[in-house]
Write a structure and sequence with these properties.
The chain is α/β, with parallel strands linked by helices and 242 residues long. The chain contains seven helices and ten strands. It has helices spanning 56-63, 86-96, 112-122, 129-141, 157-169, 187-204, 215-218, and strands spanning 13-22, 30-40, 45-49, 71-76, 79-80, 97-100, 175-179, 207-211, 223-228, 231-237. The longest helix has 18 residues, at 187-204. The structure holds adenosine-5'-diphosphate and magnesium ion. InterPro entries: AAA+_ATPase, ABC_transporter-like_ATP-bd, ABC_transporter-like_CS, ABC_transpr_LolD-like, MacB-like_ATP-bd, P-loop_NTPase.
């Protein structure tokens, strides 16, 4: 292919020499990521595996712009992020990154649909009929439109996690990050939640980076990244199992 005719888009995510230490400047300073290089293309569906304490959550929090590296650079859609100020960082996060945690962090003072609308409202969208309609479409897509006006705690754990996925997708992020989203679900609820990530990956084309301990889930991803002691020690493409 002639790249002068069809320039390829930048990867959605590129990490260069990413290092992270906690407790910097104290006697307890400890480096937990020792130089991570990684490229994720648009629409890729990757699992991130590795033992507890290997640095998976630390890495995801850096990519999600929830924390800053001690060294290295994170490019989101070709844009360097390390030197952004807090306002710019929040704006980029609101445009480009969806995040689903193991514990969903839904706010029980708000209804389910208000929780789903929240990222869009924080990003400056108006709480108008169009925003509400989009939130309802997403709730419908995760099978929960009939629960839109309930409080999060009225739903099961699996349902709450599906609400969290709808919320993460509200901004149509090109990158969806998930930190053990099925970690506290039974296997049936875990399968349902995983199926949603797959469906949205295919329909919206968002790249997915999903931390999991579950080998069954990792086997269904297109690429498996493996961490050990703060380093990426394996990166393999695979044919996803059905
Ligand atoms: P994983 O998600 O793979 O279980 P983490 O990223 O949570 O791993 O942790 C990686 C290492 O960093 C662990 O040794 C952990 O104890 C340490 N760690 C994580 N968060 C902090 C923190 N806020 N302060 C100090 N050490 C931390
Ligand atoms: Mg973790």
């Amino acid at each position: 292919m002639n790249s002068a005719v069809t320039p390829s888009p930048p990867p959605v995510l590129r990490l260069d020499g990413l290092r992270k230490a906690y407790g910097v400047g104290t006697p307890l300073e400890v480096e937990v990521l020792h130089g991570i290089d990684l490229t994720l293309q648009g629409g890729e569906f990757a699992a991130l595996i590795g033992p507890s304490g290997s640095g998976k959550s630390t890495l995801l929090n850096l990519i999600g712009l929830l924390d800053t590296p001690t060294r290295g650079e994170i490019h989101v859609q070709g844009r360097p992020t390390v030197d952004l100020n807090d306002t710019e960082r929040t704006a980029l996060r609101g445009r480009s990154l969806g995040f689903v945690f193991q514990f969903h962090h839904l706010i029980n003072a708000f209804s389910v649909i208000d929780n789903v609308m929240m990222p869009a409202l924080l990003g400056g969208a108006k709480p108008d009929a169009a925003t509400r309609e989009r939130a309802l479409e997403l709730l419908d897509a995760v099978g929960l439109a009939m629960h839109a006006h309930k409080r999060p705690t009225e739903l099961s754990g699996g349902q709450q996690q599906r609400v969290a996925i709808a919320r993460a997708l509200m901004i149509r992020p090109p990158i969806l990050l998930a930190d053990e989203p099925t970690g506290n679900l039974d296997s049936r609820a875990a399968d349902e939640v995983f199926a949603l990530f797959r469906r949205f990956n295919q329909s919206f084309g968002c790249a997915v980076l999903l931390v999991t301990h579950d080998p069954r889930i990792a086997a269904r991803c297109d690429r498996v990244l493996e961490m050990l002691d703060g380093r990426l020690v394996a990166d393999r493409a695979q044919t996803a199992q059905a």
